[in-house]
TrEMBL record:
Organism: Pauljensenia hongkongensis
Xref: SMART domains: HTH_ARSR
Alphabetic keyword roster: DNA-binding, Transcription, Transcription regulation
Entry-linked PANTHER family: TRANSCRIPTIONAL REGULATOR, ARSR FAMILY, TRANSCRIPTIONAL REGULATORY PROTEIN
Name recorded for this polypeptide: HTH arsR-type domain-containing protein
Amino acid sequence: MSRRRDDADTREAALARVFAALSDPLRLRIVRRIALEGELGCGQIDHGLSSSTVSHHCKVLREAGIVVSTPVGNQRVLTLRPEFERDYQGLLASIVRRGSAAPGGD
């Protein structure tokens, strides 16, 4: 019984990390773009932010288990973790759908 409770606690903690990471509008836009485009270079994330701020947002998404960061040349490319896509299909679909329904899109 204790093992099942530990597994449930672990899943709940993972879900809390995902929601915390996605609570920022910029990180939602980053995830939406990756979902639509397949990948996104960290250098493609501008929004008038410093590179350290962009790096921080990428790190939050990575530590929450949402994205994987891969070095390509002199930049890092973000892709969605397959586990995130599998485990949070409905959430991901909602993120994409909400973005396309917003006035002006992204």
